[in-house]
Design brief:
about 5% strand; disordered C terminus; 2 domains; 2 strands; about 260 residues; disordered N terminus; mainly alpha; Four Helix Bundle (Hemerythrin (Met), subunit A)
């Protein structure tokens, strides 16, 4: 994880350590916290439980982004320019190396565009989740991507009902983006079918997802806590995420599914 610039390497590790300490709610990773940040971070990574590895990598990527932005701001200030806020250029070979180690150690996360993304099945992850995240990054789909990413984050935190709700929000945002009308998923589904955005035989699937989202919302409202006896199983949550992901993938690729296409122009 070394960088060519020793100063930026130090700043990256310092920033990463601060992020990780905040996440852990601790004052130090090792002992009294005195010593080299790089050594502390690598030693913690080597000794921590597997379920903490994604958090360490995520902290490193946040530290990398922070160091990059600070360096860009310094260079802009020195040259009298305004920082451009360009996309963080993550090193492709570094990403491949990190993902290779995660796969080798059977840790069910993958680093995609600087984000640690959990998965239940590597096959479904490769065929659905990863393509969805890449396709949704295109202009106009930002709100959909944000909700889908949020669902994945909720899974990582163990909040199954919130994850289901977020997948429903992602689907709602996608249908609205494509021209469907309505505030609720059920209304948007009917509108999408009438406008030819989806086929008639697709509607029951979307209605089932709507019911799952309504259950999640009602369950959370009644208990005031996502962690309860009626919490959706991890398998149910991943099933919903994968099904919605497949629908989003198809919708984002364009083309009408319905027999009677109604132009939105």
């Amino acid at each position: 994880m070394a960088h060519s610039d020793g100063g930026s390497d130090y700043r990256t590790m310092e920033a990463a350590k601060r992020v990780l300490l905040a996440d852990l709610g601790q004052l130090a990773l090792l002992g009294n916290g005195q010593g080299d940040s790089r050594e502390h971070l690598f030693r913690y990574l080597a000794e921590c439980d597997d379920d903490m590895v994604p958090s360490v990598i995520e902290a490193f990527m946040e530290g990398y982004a922070t160091a990059f932005q600070q360096n860009a701001a310094r260079e802009a200030f020195a040259s009298g320019l305004v920082p451009s806020g360009s996309r963080i250029p993550f090193n492709a070979s570094l990403i491949r190396e990190i993902n290779g180690v995660l796969a080798e150690d059977r840790i069910a996360f993958e680093l995609i565009d600087g984000e640690m993304v959990p998965f239940a099945s590597r096959e479904l992850h490769i065929e659905v989740v990863e393509p969805v995240l890449r396709l949704l990054a295109k202009p106009g789909w930002q709100r959909v991507e944000k909700s889908y990413q949020s669902a994945l984050s909720q899974i990582a935190r163990g909040d199954g009902t919130d994850a289901i709700t977020d997948t429903g929000t992602a689907l709602r945002e996608a249908l609205a983006h494509l021209g469907a009308e309505g505030n609720q998923l059920g209304d948007l589904t009917t509108s999408a079918k009438n406008k030819g955005i989806i086929a008639s035989h697709d509607a029951p699937l979307l209605q089932t997802i709507d019911k799952a989202c309504r259950w999640a919302s009602a369950d959370r409202s009644n208990t005031g806590d996502a962690h309860n006896a009626d919490e959706a199983s991890r398998e149910d949550v991943w099933f919903t995420v994968h099904v919605v992901g497949a629908i989003l993938l198809r919708l984002s690729q364009g083309g009408s599914r319905g027999p009677n296409v109604v132009s939105n122009e």
